[in-house]
Amino acid sequence: MKQLWNWQNLEIAWKIEDQETETPIAIVLIHGFGASKDHWRFNQKAISSIAPCYALDLIGFGDSSQPKSQLLYEKKQTESFNYCFDNWSQQIIDFCDQIVQKPVLLIGNSIGAVIAIKASERLEKGCSGVILIDCAQRTMDDKRLTEQSVLMRLMRPLIKTLVRQRFLSKALFANAAKPIFIEKILKIAYPSGNNINKQLIDILYKPTQREGASEAFRGFINLFDDYLAPDLLKDLGIPVYLIWGERDPWEPIQEAKKWSNSFKCIKSLDVIANAGHCPHDEKPEEVNAILLRIIQEAI
Questions:
Q1: Rounded to whole angstroms, how far apart are CA atoms 185 and 104?
Q2: Which CATH number fits domain 3-298: 3.40.50.150, 3.60.110.10, 3.40.50.1820, 3.40.50.1000?
């Protein structure tokens, strides 16, 4: 059942699955861009068999508040929100402190994985580990500009100027926020086609029809200079576990393998065959088995 928590005068929607098991930790699930707490539809109950499991909607998504976006160069307004990894991770930290109230293991998918890393860094002893599922690599960040083509580098100032404009971001969002378009994207993200159904399309589509939905989109597409996972991982002192879809179209498995060989904090890399960007939803039985194994080790 959905519950609401007031955070900085904003509403955060969350839910818990708890089979009243006695464990020293709880699990917190952090969804990716455009998703919500319901994207863990096949995972949350399974995880709760061994530990209380929370899922929440990040600001801008699902049933949580969708305040007006405030970019860094814009004047701060009372009801605006800077959509960025610092603010989303602070949301997770405060949720853990105020709602969960016990040490946590964080599980994040896509940008939710970057948020999980940053939140774990600031939770310190309050976080026993992090599981990253197809962590966002953020190839369009300014810090990775040298990896882009010469044309893309030349066009970058124009692109930045254009996507700041609300008329353009709203138009782009309106074109994307349609069931037909969502289904097309899902067929790319889920290469096996498993579990692409009306329920999943509704999970992604319904929040886009709320009044402030385009503001979160505007905030996100203007994140040109924020945290990169490797920069956070290199000094992280807690265990990190990677789960990756072998056929992720956006976050190449080769990069995950590189991370696994580069950072001492990474304890394992489990590759899900014939799965894409969201293996927890595309191949839940396989991913749940891995999640339960890792959580039991953490306990």
A1: 32
A2: 3.40.50.1820
Angle at 225 between CA 222 and CA 230, to 5 degrees: 125
Tens-digit pLDDT profile for residues 175-192: 999 999 999 999 999 999
CA 92 to chain centroid, in Å, comes to 11
Cβ proximity of 279 and 134 under 8 Å: yes
Q: Is the pTM of this model over 0.90?
A: yes
Q: Dihedral sign, CA of 39, 41, 42, 47?
A: positive
Q: Are 117 and 229 in contact (CB under 8 A)?
A: yes
The b/e string for 180-209 (b: 16+ C-beta within 10 A; e otherwise) is eebbeebeebbbbeebbeeebeebbbebbe
- Distance of alpha carbon 139 from alpha carbon 27, whole angstroms: 29
For the stretch 51-93, pLDDT in tens is 999 999 999 999 999 999 988 777 777 789 999 999 999 999 9
Model confidence pLDDT, tens digit, residues 8-22: 999 999 999 998 878
